[in-house]
């Protein structure tokens, strides 16, 4: 499984979200590749992703995708990440 975290530049908030998503996935015992990327490269990086994690401001820019797009309000809130990933992944 591939999960992509998206932000404007691909290094700041997407990096934070990547680290926290990896923590949550370990806790849930779910194996996934988590990749941080910028919005400009989302089409190529997320082409084979099952899940895209991002903030509300980037949803429209992502465009058409087969991945589940999950809006995260607080990138530091692992409880929010846990709930939303469990729902998206059917855990």
Describe this structure in words.
The protein has 91 residues and is α/β, with parallel strands linked by helices. It has one domain (2-75): Response regulator (Rossmann fold, 3-Layer(aba) Sandwich), CATH 3.40.50. It is built from 4 helices and 4 strands. It has helices at 13-28, 42-45, 59-62, 78-89; strands spanning 2-7, 33-38, 51-54, 68-71. It has a 4-stranded parallel sheet with strand order 2-1-3-4, covered by helices on one side. Helix 1 packs across helix 4 (78-89). It is globular and about 30 Å long. The two termini are 14 Å apart. The relative contact order is 0.24.
In short:
With 91 residues, this protein is α/β, with parallel strands linked by helices.
Number of helices: 4
What is CATH's topology name?
Rossmann fold
Main structural class: alpha/beta
Radius of gyration: 12 Å
Strand content: 15-25%
The tally of strands reads 4
Mean pLDDT over the full residue set? 89
CATH architecture: 3-Layer(aba) Sandwich
Strand order of the largest sheet: 2-1-3-4
- Major beta-sheet overview: 4 strands, parallel
Question: In one word, what is the shape?
Answer: globular
Determine the fraction of residues in helical runs and give it as a percent range: 25-40%
Instruction: Name the CATH superfamily assignment.
Output: Response regulator
- Report the CATH C-level class: Alpha Beta
Secondary-structure element series: EHEHEHEH
Ends apart, CA distance between termini: 14 Å
Which stretches are low in confidence, meaning pLDDT under 50 for 5 or more residues running?
A: none
Give the tally of structural domains.
1
């Amino acid at each position: 499984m591939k999960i992509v975290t998206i932000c404007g530049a691909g290094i700041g908030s997407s990096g934070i979200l990547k680290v926290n998503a990896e923590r949550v996935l370990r806790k849930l015992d779910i194996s996934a590749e988590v990749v941080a990327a910028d919005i400009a490269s989302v089409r190529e990086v997320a082409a084979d992703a099952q899940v895209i994690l991002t903030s509300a401001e980037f949803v429209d820019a992502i465009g058409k995708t087969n991945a589940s797009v999950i809006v995260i309000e607080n990138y530091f809130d692992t409880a929010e990440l846990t709930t939303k990933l469990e729902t998206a992944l059917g855990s």
